[in-house]
Amino acid sequence: MPAGGGRVESGAGLEPGPPPAAVRARSNAEEGNGRKSGRPEAVPDSRLPTPDSRVFVIEAFSLSARVGEFRLEDVTFTVPAGRYGVVIGPAGSGKTTLLETVAGITPQRGGVLRLNGRDVTGVPPERRGVGLVYQHGYLFPHLSVAENVAYGAADAATAAAVASRLGADALADRDVRSLSGGERQLVAIARALARRPAVLLLDEPFSALDPRRRALVRREVRAIHRSWELTVLQVTHDFTEAGLLGDVAILLDGGRVLQAGPPEDVFRRPASPYVAEFLGAENVFAGTVRVLGDAAPDWVEGEPAALAGGHRAIEFQSGPLTLYAVGDAHAGPAYAVIRAEEVVLSRTPHPSSARNEFRGRVTDVATLGALTRVTVDVRGVPIVAALTTRSAQELGVREGIDVVASFKAMAVHLC
Amino acid sequence: MPARLPTPDSRLPVVCLIALLACTGGDGKSADQQRLVVFNAGSLARPLRTALDSFAGRTGVVVDQESAGSLETARKLTELGKVPDVVALADYEVFPQLLMPEHVTWYARFARNRMVLAYTDRSKYAGEITGDNWWRVVTRPGVEVGRSDPNLDPNGYRTLLTWRLAERHYRRPGLYARLERNAPARNVRPKEADLVGLLQAGEMDYVWSYESIAQAAGLRYVTLPAAIDLSSVRDSATYATASVRVAGRTRGDTVEFRGQPIVYGYSIPVRAPHRAVAERFVAFLASADGRAILRRAGLDVLDTPAVVGTGAPPALARSADVNAP
Amino acid sequence: MMPARPPTPPARLPVVPLPTPHSPLPAVASILAALAGSLLLLFLVAPLAGLVGQGGASGVRGLFTDGELRAALTLTALTATAATLLGVVGGTPLAYLLARSEFRGRAVLAALLDLPLLVPHPVAGIALLLVLGRQSALGAALLALGLRVVGTPAGIVCAMLFVSAPLYVSGAREAFARVDRRYEAVARTLGDSRWRVFRRVTLPLSGRGLVAASVVMWARAVSEFGSIVIITYNPKVASVLSFDRFTSYGLAEALPVSAVLALLALVPLTLLRALRDEK
Which residue among A50, A102, B202, C18 has the highest number of C-beta atoms inside a 10 angstrom radius? Predict the structure, then answer.
């Protein structure tokens, strides 16, 4: 079954492996939410991370900004050189404001922003070396398509090359007003890339494209991103796309960063139940942690590597359910998050390394294309499992039948 | 079949129709009976205002007063067909020249005035100007003198006449030109009322005006010799030696005005809408009370109005003496 | 397995009659609206049509024969144009500021800029006198330099500028506001400085609106009378001349001047129309 939120290789594969050392950005959730830095405030030098343009191209530290109703508060994240950053958040969370602040269009009220190791506070947008593509293109209506692409182009050759890669050259003589939404997006991306920026900022750039074009443009953008070693920061509300594209995921809500890091970290190990629900984790339980003794319980034999990292075996009590997890949580109240994709369904219990196994009755089956979500009632607690529709059909899953839901101890994330 | 409810917007057109009809209806005749419409020259505005207020207080009549230049006022009758109950002008000559016999058949001369030089404390050389040296002072360089348009306002051409008379009186050939140099076209305004504002704003040092206006506005002014200020009937012959040409009835025409004492006149037009009320008002103006009110407002009122023409109300004709000043 | 014969057509659906309008009164409302509109149109057009009809011919003839009329029309055109140019130069940055920047006193500034429109025209003339007259600091300084304002065409330009500039500023502000900020934002990232963005993006996109606003300003300047009479009566602009002719000679002489003015007014109106239609 597909692992949700993981990186899927597409086209020419990207080198697997985590980003270079010491990159894991600090999550504000770990720091607690008490700090308010809405007032413009000088950040004491001792707290600043040292600029390292070899590693980071975009560094934001305690950034704050305000545009009318939209605000950013204490935003901190980094995107390494040549990497793809993805900003995820609901509407109104300040995603576009974030891009505009990085571009310099919205002045920052506090914090530090560095691009390529250079502090760009107060530097006007035209000197930041950023490219910006809005959600609806914003092609200049008084210029032709060719003129749009050439507007800020580094040189004619680059403009032509980019245009042909994205398929914008076929539209060269068309009037901007006659283009469809998808064609406009295409030209807008070409226009931004023609300038050869060091950083590309994209605001939901593929949303207007039809699936065929979306795949093509996404592929070409990624190809250009790799061959030019472009650093990209893209806003999206599509979690799948985020997982597909991103090396760094930044969760934004209400102008604050909830969590930042590699997408799989964020998806699998949400920093708080709120983040978990935010990312669509269906199984979030409140309960109590009890750390089991140092003696390795027999079920950990299947997971020696986990214990080697200093993690403990944990018993998590949530209502009538007892879950077993592996982690480094402390005793006391906590939340347990299990992604629906990690829950395995079968008609009968069968031996597996999954330590958590429950019998229950199916209360809901929701099929959406290739994925089916099955809700199982286990002693009054609903557990959601996600499986391929084909598997669901082969299992004969339907409402009212009894099934066994199981998941590994490693799949239980505590926060 | 669903029951038909009267919807709000179906009532609206009906309401509009009713409102429209209500506005056009109504009988205004009874309200008109107690109205008095007066057209007067600008320089009579204040004195007549006080007289009208008093009259309205005594009789309860509603008064409409319109002030304008004398010629402009006359034009309202001759060109626009707007007919008041009483028309009062700063130049009695306009009656025979423009308004008789079609619009009025008589007029009464009732008050006098004189040309003065009005000024303020801020005016240049305000400390040293007198009735004897004024013509030296206002011809000094840098002194701004204002006057009204001779083609629109009797005050305007009377100013020119005064200059002519001054040239002769002080035996200074070329004085007219020098006086004009300090009162060029850019210092000309349509009515004397505009001049007072400019004087008070400090834009002008001196303005040519009437004594009544200067008094009413609380301005300082220079009293000129009687031989030149068009005030006295005794000097009529002297005044008549000066003349100016201004625009006539039609463009391209000119008309000549000879120096004459400044005398105000009023009349009740032939087609006055409220004749009875007008006659009561005119009688009030001629009465002792009316004259006292006008004098207090700065107007030099004749003891008895001098009536010219036929058809004047009996109240006036009784005290008529054609040759009174 | 494909069926051997075509499927039977579905049973005929019952025909549902369209609802008939059951109240005649909405039609009455439409008639009233049309009536009101026609009356207003008539009210606006008839007087001018009468003017041109009665005085148009002699007015046009006067253009060739009447030197005073020609001088007044020329003066009007020159001063109105000068005032409009000054208004555009000063008003465009103001309008851009109002459209783009968000600062505390923005509403107050906008209200202040609209004030000259509310002031009665003679009052405007008096207000200008206090600032430009020879007793004022500015007026005295200018006079010392040999520049006289009151009583000269410069004064006419000032009066026109005062009463008509607010119209340009509000029109230009609208034109700028209609240009989405994001166009400018994108252009900045594409390498344009603030000024270059204005020149290459904002101006082309708002240009038509700006021209329309300046035409409105010009028309207002041409028609001004009350404040000009106070500041500069001589030399006479067309509005002052027509009043002058009316007072001196009566209707017959005033009509041609007024008719020619009305005909001239068609020039900016046609311009405006042409601009709007181009869209």
Answer: A102
Q: Are B306 and B323 in contact (CB under 8 A)?
A: yes
**Candidates 3.40.190.10, 3.40.50.300, 3.40.1550.10, 3.40.309.10; CATH matching B35-112+263-317:** 3.40.190.10
How far, in Å, CA of C92 to CA of A333, rounded? 63
Q: Considering the domain boundaries, does residue A117 fall inside one?
A: yes
Structure confidence by residue, pLDDT tens digits, C202-227: 999 999 999 999 999 999 999 999 99
Q: Does A55 score more than 70 pLDDT? A: no
Q: Looking at chain C, how many residues does it have?
A: 279
Residue C71's CATH number:
1.10.3720.10
Q: What H or E segment, with its residue span, contains residue B247?
A: strand B243-247
* Exposure string over A296-309, b if 16+ CB within 10 A, otherwise e: eeebbeebeebbee
How many other CB atoms are found less than 10 A from the CB of residue B24? 6
Q: Touching check for A103 and chain C: CB below 8 Å?
A: yes
Inter-residue contact A137 to A79 (CB < 8 Å): no
Supply the CATH number for residue A337's domain. 2.40.50.100
Let me know if residue A147 belongs to a domain.
Answer: no
pLDDT in tens, A314-357: 888 888 889 888 877 788 888 888 888 889 998 888 777 678 88
- Chain C residues with CB inside 8 Å of A141's CB? 205
Which residue out of A98, A106, A126 would a mutagenesis test of the C interface target, given it has the greatest number of C Cβ atoms within 10 Å?
A: A126
Q: Does C169 touch chain A (CB under 8 A)?
A: no
Instruction: Provide the domain count of chain A.
Output: 2
Q: Which chains neighbour A (Cβ–Cβ under 8 Å, 3 or more pairs)?
A: C
Return the structure tokens found at A228: 């030019």
- What contacts A206, CB < 8 A, 6 or more positions away? A185, A214, A217, A218, A236, A241
3-class DSSP state for residue A177? helix
Task: Quote the Cα angle for A382-A383-A384, to 5°.
Answer: 120
The DSSP annotation for A327-386 comes to: E-PPSEEEEEEE-GGG-EEESS----S-SEEEEEEEEEEEEETTEEEEEEEETTEEEEEE
| B115-258: CATH topology | D-Maltodextrin-Binding Protein; domain 2 (3.40.190)
Residue C22 lies inside a defined structural domain of this protein: no
Contact between B198 and B148 (Cβ < 8 Å): no
Decide if C2 is inside a domain: no
Residue B241 pLDDT level (bands cut at 50, 70, 90): very high
Inter-chain CB proximity B9 and C244 less than 8 Å: no
Cβ proximity of A231 and A200 under 8 Å: yes
Per the structure, the count of domains in chain C is 1
Tokens of C30: 């439409």
User: Which of C180, C183, C193 comes nearest A126 by C-beta?
Assistant: C193
Q: Is A116 found in the same domain as A262? A: yes
Query: Taking Cα atoms as reference points, which of A69, A68, A72 lies closest to residue A40?
Result: A72
